[in-house]
Amino acid sequence: MSFSTALSGLNAATADLNVKSNNIANVNTTGFKESRAEFGDVFAVSAFGTTSKTATGNGVVLQNVAQQFSQGNLEFTDNALDLAISGEGFFAMAPELNSGEVIYSRAGEFAVNKDGYVVSNEGWFLRTFPVDTDGNISATSINATSPIQLPPSVGAPEATTSLSIATNLPSNSDPISTGGADLVQGSYTTSSSLTISDFSTDQVSFEVDGTLVTLNADYGSLSGVASEIQSQLTGYSVALDATNNIVFTAPDENAPVIANYDGDVDGGGATVADFTAGSGSAGSAAVTPSVLAIDPSDPASYSFSTSATVYDSLGNEHIVTTYYQKIDAAAVGDEDNQWQMAVYLDGGDVKGGTEGVPYALETNARLSFNPDGTLGTVDADPTTAAIEPINLSFTDGTNSEWASGASTQSISLTLAGSTQNSGPFNVGALTVNGFPTGRLTGVDVSDDGLMRATYSNGQAVPIGKIALGDFANPQALNKIGNTAWKETTDSGPVIAGEAGTGSFGQIQAGALENSNVDLTKELVGLITAQRNFQANSKAIETNNAITQTIINLR
Predict the structure, then answer these.
(1) What is the pTM of this model?
(2) How far apart, in whole angstroms, are the C-alpha atoms of residue 474 and residue 106?
(3) Which residues are in the Flagellar hook protein FlgE/F/G-like D1 domain (predicted)?
């Protein structure tokens, strides 16, 4: 019996050496879990389940090779699809695309295959829970998982529906001036009478705007006098009116006519009356204070402006510019703290518009600020144009049809957070949704396992959430190689869930979990196993010597 006892010791030492050698061999295997040989002693047991008090035992037996699922160190990499679980749990994978079988692993060396599926080095398909547009899942059953496939390389654009601009408009800004303008012209009429009895002896001369006109002949009639005057003047019209008065008409209706009479009048029949003022009128016009219209092509018509990029349903970019003008209190009933705002697009963006010519979406939005500088009210009346798709909404909307042929959309402009303070003009916040067409640039994985496809337009679209599995007795899992396991009856059914919830650990992207083998401990154990083997060999040698001694007895 001593031979068999020693032989069992040799077998046990060999098994221990094998386990430790396997651990050492896999010291650099990603996700590897070290094993430990567990032994039990052997005793002869009677039919009644008892052993003799003097029983010495019958050696040792290997009871189990138990895996130790302690956490391995994380090693960070540059690959976003290198995944490590920090805590409990296993990655769930499918050996075949349409297979219902599930295998589990801690090795997170994943990549994308030619069909866009995320697979392990062995070609196993990573399983994920389906998610909605916000990244939420509806079920955590392992049966709800499926292989994850990346979306097409081109991401669809999204039309802008909301634009928010928060500005500070300087409270000390001056209202926009209309600039110089011509005064309203007035009119004034004066007349005088002159009686001439004999042109043969009487001479009359006068000046019209510096031109000397002399009358010293017999004209026979007043029309002849008018003709003579006309012949000596340039640029004026001279004629008789209905009452035979000579009327001078200037070439410009606003130009003055100056007539100076000078000369000698002889003979008792001549009577000269002094000029007397006739009817006169001063020019007048009703002037009503009003707000100067904003003209994007005239920087003098506005104080400040800011622009934002919006997108149509085809992903085309369009620039929306808002213009601001301080309003004179006198123009709005002595109400202070008011600004006018206008919103324009480039005309080339709108069907029927002209490129380079601003196209008005809103021309007379009135911003009223409270005494503390906060925005009070916004009164707007957007222009209604023969354009169907864009609806820039203030209190109602403006409809416009994109020249690009994009579908209709409604853009809501809000000014919440705008102020009127003493500081300079600035845009404190400008947010706009929507985005152009994007190109797939990679995959982002968050610590809760949510996978997002990232695009060149800055968008990250949720495509799935990594499923983790755990077991009541993971040491009872069936080892299938390639650092993978299968569920067994002794392990219990899989418990599926999300990373970071319950007992599940978090997922670290761009990292791998190293083997949890402690090389120093294994080398020491290797020496111990070697000594055990040598000791059991010595026991066999000793038993052999004793047996030989017995044989030699005669």
Answers:
(1) 0.61
(2) 12
(3) 84-166
